[in-house]
Amino acid sequence: MHPFVLPCQITIRLWRTAIAALPGVFLLAAAALPGGCGPVADGAHAAPYGIISHNPPPPVELHIGVLPDQLPAELAARYAPLVAYLGSTLGIPATLVPARDYQQLLDQLGDGRVDVALLGGVTFLIARQRGAILPLVMRRRDTHFASYFLVRGDQPATSLSDLGGARLAFGSRLSTSGHMMPRHYLMQEGIDAERFFGSVTHYDTHDLTIRALLDGNIDVAAVNSAIADRVLADPRIAPGTVRVLAKTPPYPDYVWVARSGLPDEFSSRVAAAFLRLRVDNPADAALLKSLDAKLYLPARNRDFASLREVMQQIHPEPLP
Known about the structure:
The chain is built from 12 helices and 11 strands. The chain is an alpha/beta fold. Helix 1 runs parallel beside helix 10 and helix 4 (102-111) packs parallel to helix 5. The protein is globular.
């Protein structure tokens, strides 16, 4: 067995857990899954980058990292129910480990300060470049995510091509939804951001990008659609203050991963804790709502193949 391939019994068990909740043909597919290990075909569920196959002891405390795409207080409040749930389910203390930026989260995952982490598509691909990580689960919505280009409500433009000379802001340079995919969309529309717009800036979080738009410091904000929807639903922001001028086509984004060195069985238990959550279960509903999720699915390296192609076009040289 390749030293970085997840044992297929664990992969099969994760797929059975997810598929068992789905009707009809999916149940037939689950029943057809093999019980033992055989050759893994190209594109099958076992991943070329996964946890190493030796059996180190499980952690005595779970350290959880999340992409710092919002302000720290927002992240702490949003993920507190998940931290409590994972700690209770796994039977060990669980702690949210803050990261000041995307790069620090990658460092924490790489040196073992974080055991499981929520990464974006770009940071996931960078972590794979650096070494062995295992994709665990994604929300269903993460398989077809999108970015918005926001403008103020009084902006008369009907398309991005009307905004030559305007001030554009992206999110972090390592952000999938705040930078790479909006930039890719502009390129597809024939727009070179640095030449077309009057200025191009970057903000660390989507909250700050939207705030800069509301304050009149920029004219166009490229942001994560889910975070934008939550921020703009705030009753303190008057309806019509901001509007969506353009939306990117869908792409894969957020994914929960396990670091290298975790025991196979432990990583399987973490994934199973997500996969068993059901929105029609009252005990799970509030937790899923806090995560903007309705269902978690097993994640695979191949889910990010299209994103990898985009990243190679925009960043031909490996990112740090």
